[in-house]
Amino acid sequence: MQPEKTKIGPEPAESLQTRAELSDILRKKGFRLTPQREKILDIFYELPAGEHLSAEDLQKALRTENSDISLATSYRTLKLLASLNVLRELDFAEDHKHYELARNPKSPHHHIICLDCGKTEEFESEEIIRLSEDLARERGFQIVDVQLKLSALCEQHATEPKAC
Fold first, then answer.
1. Domains of the chain, with CATH numbers?
2. Model confidence, pTM
Protein backbone atom coordinates (compact mmCIF):
# COMPACT_ATOMS: atom_id res chain seq x y z
CA MET A 1 0.00 0.00 0.00
CA GLN A 2 1.47 3.36 -1.06
CA PRO A 3 1.52 6.31 1.33
CA GLU A 4 -1.14 8.94 0.72
CA LYS A 5 0.03 12.00 -1.23
CA THR A 6 0.52 15.02 0.97
CA LYS A 7 -1.80 17.97 0.38
CA ILE A 8 0.02 21.27 0.31
CA GLY A 9 -1.54 24.72 0.52
CA PRO A 10 -5.02 26.03 -0.15
CA GLU A 11 -7.50 24.04 -2.18
CA PRO A 12 -5.88 23.77 -5.62
CA ALA A 13 -7.54 24.17 -8.97
CA GLU A 14 -7.07 20.43 -9.28
CA SER A 15 -7.92 19.47 -12.83
CA LEU A 16 -7.96 22.32 -15.27
CA GLN A 17 -8.51 20.15 -18.29
CA THR A 18 -11.30 22.14 -19.93
CA ARG A 19 -12.14 25.79 -20.48
CA ALA A 20 -15.51 25.19 -18.83
CA GLU A 21 -13.82 24.05 -15.60
CA LEU A 22 -11.47 27.02 -15.64
CA SER A 23 -14.26 29.44 -16.45
CA ASP A 24 -16.26 28.00 -13.54
CA ILE A 25 -13.33 28.44 -11.11
CA LEU A 26 -12.87 32.05 -12.21
CA ARG A 27 -16.61 32.80 -11.98
CA LYS A 28 -16.84 31.32 -8.47
CA LYS A 29 -14.06 33.71 -7.43
CA GLY A 30 -15.77 36.68 -9.09
CA PHE A 31 -13.68 36.78 -12.30
CA ARG A 32 -14.40 36.15 -15.98
CA LEU A 33 -12.39 34.19 -18.52
CA THR A 34 -11.67 37.18 -20.74
CA PRO A 35 -10.17 36.77 -24.23
CA GLN A 36 -6.83 38.03 -22.83
CA ARG A 37 -6.82 35.51 -19.97
CA GLU A 38 -7.83 32.77 -22.39
CA LYS A 39 -4.98 33.65 -24.78
CA ILE A 40 -2.43 33.67 -21.96
CA LEU A 41 -3.70 30.31 -20.72
CA ASP A 42 -3.49 28.91 -24.25
CA ILE A 43 0.22 29.69 -24.28
CA PHE A 44 0.75 27.90 -20.96
CA TYR A 45 -1.35 24.89 -22.04
CA GLU A 46 0.80 24.58 -25.19
CA LEU A 47 4.09 24.58 -23.26
CA PRO A 48 5.75 21.23 -22.72
CA ALA A 49 5.78 20.03 -19.11
CA GLY A 50 8.76 21.54 -17.33
CA GLU A 51 8.75 24.80 -19.28
CA HIS A 52 8.59 28.04 -17.30
CA LEU A 53 7.84 31.55 -18.56
CA SER A 54 8.57 34.95 -17.11
CA ALA A 55 6.21 37.82 -17.89
CA GLU A 56 8.72 38.96 -20.53
CA ASP A 57 8.87 35.46 -22.06
CA LEU A 58 5.08 35.41 -22.15
CA GLN A 59 5.08 38.80 -23.87
CA LYS A 60 7.45 37.50 -26.57
CA ALA A 61 5.19 34.49 -27.12
CA LEU A 62 2.15 36.78 -27.36
CA ARG A 63 3.92 39.00 -29.92
CA THR A 64 4.85 35.92 -31.96
CA GLU A 65 1.13 35.21 -32.19
CA ASN A 66 0.38 38.85 -33.13
CA SER A 67 -1.45 39.51 -29.87
CA ASP A 68 -1.81 43.07 -28.61
CA ILE A 69 -2.04 42.10 -24.93
CA SER A 70 0.05 44.60 -22.95
CA LEU A 71 2.82 43.70 -20.54
CA ALA A 72 0.74 45.23 -17.70
CA THR A 73 -2.20 42.95 -18.55
CA SER A 74 0.17 39.99 -18.70
CA TYR A 75 1.53 40.79 -15.22
CA ARG A 76 -1.97 41.21 -13.75
CA THR A 77 -3.18 37.98 -15.36
CA LEU A 78 -0.13 36.01 -14.17
CA LYS A 79 -0.66 37.24 -10.60
CA LEU A 80 -4.38 36.45 -10.72
CA LEU A 81 -3.92 32.95 -12.13
CA ALA A 82 -1.18 32.23 -9.59
CA SER A 83 -3.44 33.39 -6.74
CA LEU A 84 -6.12 30.98 -8.00
CA ASN A 85 -3.56 28.11 -8.15
CA VAL A 86 -4.00 27.80 -11.91
CA LEU A 87 -0.37 28.84 -12.40
CA ARG A 88 2.51 28.21 -10.04
CA GLU A 89 4.77 31.18 -9.33
CA LEU A 90 8.45 30.26 -9.16
CA ASP A 91 11.37 32.28 -7.86
CA PHE A 92 14.62 31.31 -9.54
CA ALA A 93 16.44 34.36 -8.06
CA GLU A 94 16.74 36.07 -11.43
CA ASP A 95 15.15 39.39 -10.40
CA HIS A 96 11.82 38.21 -11.81
CA LYS A 97 9.31 35.41 -11.32
CA HIS A 98 8.66 32.50 -13.63
CA TYR A 99 5.32 30.76 -14.04
CA GLU A 100 4.19 27.31 -15.03
CA LEU A 101 0.85 25.61 -15.36
CA ALA A 102 -0.09 23.96 -12.06
CA ARG A 103 -0.45 20.55 -13.68
CA ASN A 104 -0.53 18.59 -10.42
CA PRO A 105 -0.83 21.04 -7.53
CA LYS A 106 -1.34 18.28 -4.94
CA SER A 107 2.15 16.95 -5.63
CA PRO A 108 4.55 19.87 -5.93
CA HIS A 109 7.79 19.39 -7.78
CA HIS A 110 11.15 21.01 -7.28
CA HIS A 111 13.89 22.36 -9.54
CA ILE A 112 17.61 21.90 -9.97
CA ILE A 113 19.20 24.71 -11.97
CA CYS A 114 22.64 24.94 -13.56
CA LEU A 115 24.35 28.16 -12.51
CA ASP A 116 26.27 28.39 -15.80
CA CYS A 117 23.78 27.57 -18.55
CA GLY A 118 20.44 27.83 -16.74
CA LYS A 119 19.42 24.27 -17.61
CA THR A 120 16.53 23.38 -15.32
CA GLU A 121 15.26 19.94 -14.39
CA GLU A 122 12.24 19.12 -12.29
CA PHE A 123 11.94 16.38 -9.69
CA GLU A 124 9.45 15.21 -7.08
CA SER A 125 10.24 14.03 -3.57
CA GLU A 126 7.72 12.95 -0.96
CA GLU A 127 10.60 12.95 1.53
CA ILE A 128 11.13 16.70 1.02
CA ILE A 129 7.40 17.32 1.51
CA ARG A 130 7.29 15.27 4.72
CA LEU A 131 10.43 16.93 6.10
CA SER A 132 9.03 20.39 5.29
CA GLU A 133 5.75 19.60 7.03
CA ASP A 134 7.54 18.22 10.09
CA LEU A 135 9.79 21.29 10.36
CA ALA A 136 6.84 23.67 9.95
CA ARG A 137 4.66 21.79 12.46
CA GLU A 138 7.50 21.76 15.05
CA ARG A 139 7.69 25.54 14.73
CA GLY A 140 3.94 26.19 14.75
CA PHE A 141 3.52 26.86 11.02
CA GLN A 142 1.21 25.38 8.39
CA ILE A 143 2.71 24.72 4.95
CA VAL A 144 1.16 26.64 2.05
CA ASP A 145 3.68 25.66 -0.65
CA VAL A 146 6.99 23.87 -0.88
CA GLN A 147 9.47 24.94 -3.53
CA LEU A 148 12.98 23.61 -3.31
CA LYS A 149 15.46 25.11 -5.73
CA LEU A 150 18.86 23.50 -5.99
CA SER A 151 21.59 25.64 -7.54
CA ALA A 152 24.21 23.41 -9.11
CA LEU A 153 26.39 22.80 -12.13
CA CYS A 154 25.10 20.44 -14.80
CA GLU A 155 27.31 17.53 -15.84
CA GLN A 156 28.74 19.47 -18.78
CA HIS A 157 29.64 22.57 -16.75
CA ALA A 158 30.86 20.68 -13.69
CA THR A 159 33.60 19.04 -15.78
CA GLU A 160 34.54 22.00 -18.01
CA PRO A 161 36.65 24.78 -16.58
CA LYS A 162 34.76 28.08 -16.81
CA ALA A 163 36.26 30.47 -19.36
CA CYS A 164 37.06 33.86 -17.84
1. 13-106 (1.10.10.10), 107-164 (3.30.1490.190)
2. 0.66
